[in-house]
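Standup notes
- DV: blocked on the single-chain target, sequence here:
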Amino acid sequence: MLKGLYFALLAIFILLVIIFLVVRVREGGVKALFLKVAASMTFIMSSIISLSLSASNYYYGIFIVVGLIFGLLGDVWLDLKYVHRDYDEPYTFAGMISFLIGHIFYIVGILRAYPKFVPWQIALAIFSAIGVTAIARFLDRNKEFNYGKFNLLTLVYSVITMLTVTFSLNAMNCFAILPMADGVDTSAHLWRFVIMFIGTVLFALSDLVLSRVYFLKGGNTSKNVVVNHVLYFSAQFILTLSIHM
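- DV (later): unblocked, structure below
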């Protein structure tokens, strides 16, 4: 019964995302905010059900669920900036901080699920995240980005977002791919790592597009809005699925 409800909620989630994207592009406003929250609520409910179906993955899943809840809060704050435009900056700050906290929970979930990380693996993940962020900023130096008051926060946010990617990549490499190369059969949980890694990459890509929507001159286009949300909701969907694997 729970498994049937899980898949039913995912189907409703996909339908609500499609409706939301149409409304968001055509008119925006409170209706779009309501649909986005409704879509987010369905994947949070599905993640909770997935958690109950996957007791062996509980400690990873509980942190992912909490991260998704902070993502929902971030959704509300960021969309309210379009409803109450006089409060653009406070809502943007609140939304970014909510998502940043959510990413921290994702990182803790990965570390809690795979506690055998050695110091050099943790250091590699951190330096890789900082390096990718620095390269991205360097490549954007000639574009018309204006981060303004959000410059420091966007830097910290970018590093934290990339940490989810580098930690998930390290986990997949250290606990699945390298042991497999040594003859250890890790096929039973390889797909969990792959799906987790894909989810974090899609999340990072959605944030990359969102930075163009918010901070690049002329970047707030319908195309960027749609691409951002497709990547974002795909990431949420896949992270929810990773709990179930």
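- Follow-up: The chain has one domain: 2-244.
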